[in-house]
């Protein structure tokens, strides 16, 4: 059975030559060349032409919002400018098929602020995707908040994406098994998602959403585990945190409902989706694939399964497929013929 709607996908990656050069200049290994279980993705990461477009067409992806793959070290401003200019040309070459999220030099927050403004105002990007940490530091430190201020002023979302963290890998995930297993545990098998969830809670605890009440944050992978813990976290933050003087003006449920969007990227199972649908407002759920780390055909089959399961109405499913993204990002795709 054909799926009846076009789709927009928001967490779709590429690998830029400028970043490969940056790794080499800093005597760091390129993780997409040296990490055994990521080598399989490298060819499709660097390809942003006919192969990618055919996969999109075959699997009803009308538009990919492209962003750079996670980085194993913080990028400088010059590298980010090169990445963003390359992406802007890719979008210009394929208007309507591709859009862009900016790559930002979070190690230089003031420069990241200016680069986000350039990317939105001049390159017409739709927001930014930033790595979950900057050389092991998280963004609850006000040092990084110029980026959030810029995003609020520009009215564009920040996609907080899991990324490498050497500091937590050795402490939490190295064990009595091959290092390749430790790598996967520290990344996409567990660590990336639990750390990204914690990062969001840290932002809330630090008062980011009181300081920037209109800030839009996107979390991938069905909310990075948070929907399954949300009620417990709300209970703790609302009843216990005030005892030590942490009293956010906007409580966690309000922030979750008003400031957070989540995507399905890489998570294509009905059971967790049932929890997401109970914990999130329907217009805050967005379809994504996480190409090329996962496959467009897996995502399309998930949407078909979701329709067949009867868990959502046609109106909700159409929103997840593309209409919610159109509203958030200010884009339009054509209905299926």
UniProtKB/TrEMBL annotation:
Highest taxon in the source lineage: Eukaryota
One Pfam match: Amidohydro_2
Domain Amidohydrolase-related as annotated: residue spans: 75-330
InterPro entries recorded: ACMSD, Amidohydro-rel, Metal_Hydrolase
Single GO MF descriptor: hydrolase activity
Keywords for the protein's UniProt record, in alphabetical order: Decarboxylase, Lyase
Annotated TM spans: none
A single GO cellular-component term on record: cytosol
Protein name, UniProt field: Amidohydrolase-related domain-containing protein
Organism, scientific name: Exophiala bonariae
Source lineage: Eukaryota, Fungi, Dikarya, Ascomycota, Pezizomycotina
